[in-house]
Write a structure and sequence with these properties.
Length: 78
């Protein structure tokens, strides 16, 4: 959706806009790092527990209330 919005506003694709930008230079070296879990099983268990907690805390009711408002739609900005 964002790509369509950018194209409508600029008449250029995201790729065209990116090609026009100069690479950003920094006065220091940039180090990219990533954090990965040692065991994906543990990660998935934590995600499941978090999701269950969200359900218990009223996620379904919150979503139903938002949908019932009637003023929310897909055309709103993210």
């Amino acid at each position: 959706m964002r790509a369509v919005e950018v194209y409508r506003a600029s008449n250029m694709t995201l790729t065209e806009l990116w090609r026009q930008q100069r690479p950003e230079t920094f006065p220091w070296k940039v180090l990219s790092i990533g954090v990965t879990p040692l065991e994906r099983r543990i990660l998935h268990e934590r995600i499941a527990r978090r999701f269950d907690a969200m359900l218990e805390a009223g996620l379904i009711g919150e979503v139903e209330a938002l949908r019932a408002r009637g003023d929310l739609h897909a055309d709103l900005p993210p």
